[in-house]
Sequence to fold (443 residues):
Amino acid sequence: MRILALLLASLLTLAAAPVPAVRTVYRHAALIDGTGAPLRRDMAVVVAGERIASVVRDRALTLRQLRGARVVDLSGKYLLPGLIDSHQHIATPPGRAKALALLRRQLYSGVTAIRDMADDVREVRALDAMGRSGAIAAPEISYAALVAGPSFFADPRVAAASKGFAPGTAPWMQAVDEKTDIPATIARAKGTGAIALKIYANLSASLVARLTGEAHRQGLAVWAHGMVFPATPAEVVAAGPETVSHINYLAYQAMDRRPQSYQDRFPIDYARFAQGDTAAMAALFREMRRRGVILDATIRVYAEREKQAVRKGEAPRGATELAERLVDQAWRAGVAISAGTDGDSPRAAAYPSLFDEIELLGAAGLPPLQAIRAATLVGARTLRQEREMGSVAAGKLANLVVLDRNPLESLANMRSVVLTVKRGRAYPRADYRPIGPEEMKDD
Fold:
């Protein structure tokens, strides 16, 4: 009897013992670690299970690290952290086939995480769960619940992303005013699984401040538009959000007259910025730096609108030039800048829109290492996940991307992905299936 008990105890101990993590050693890589540090050649990254076990000079690898490991020779290749798009919308309205196709292209292009900036969270939550389980090829998704003034909710996108709810009543898209129970509103938003509150439009400065304070008290991040109409950029920044989006919204701070609602927006006076840096923007950027507010610039939004104008035979108004000029001023002022797109590439494009944004950040004045950092470590900060991802470091998730060409010679070389690694699982670019027309039927 005693022998049987000992045998059972031994079996239970074996069953409870952790299964050794499968190890992969990526050798002889030229490493760009995402922190902004210079490229390091002939580096090795040891991956155990879903995490990075160590990052060492290749010559410092030990026999113990190599024994039994799968070895991948990256001689002549460039190893970076997995990329992060800090401004995406994948479910307005929900379209499963389209979303799966776009997410697949993102992952096989090296994008291992995205920040979803307000959608139908029922669909976003399902897509994220499938991606995390490995059921689909997709980046991990962190998402927001949205609040705005009641007058915003006539916007047709609200109905598209909250079917089954009257506009402004879905827990992830709530209308608020001075009489709203703010703590209850934030609690409902948090209950959706959102990691952040997105403050969108048609709210006063006092409401922006109250919403931000309560969201932080309840543990949510705050992602705000650069101007919340009528709340000015300076008033939004003073409330203390983690990020503000859309660089040209910030330009309203330097104007004598500003729109009083989202629906009544009017063009920026470009002439005001023609002579270079303005004092109003300098003061705003100083405050953003002091508070650690990240700029989600979305230059690509302005570039795409101008391309559309040209296709229609219209003259571009200079929005992209202004965006690049302001991003350059923000960068020189020490503001942290993330790479967010607020849109995606056409179906036939080989790579998603994040690659456009990275190149535009470079055109705006960010050095290549810093443009890459905007899409890696700063992107992770927008998700509050810089301890988990965003750089190649021991203990972090094994989210990696391998390039065939040197992105420091040209940011266009980012479009040379040969391998993505997400939580230790490899996704060779050669296995990527381009998006078919039938997959975009929901577009």
Summary: The first strand starts at residue 23 and ends at 31. The CA atoms of residues 2 and 8 lie 10 Å apart. Confidence is low (pLDDT under 50) at residues 1-19. The radius of gyration is 23 Å.
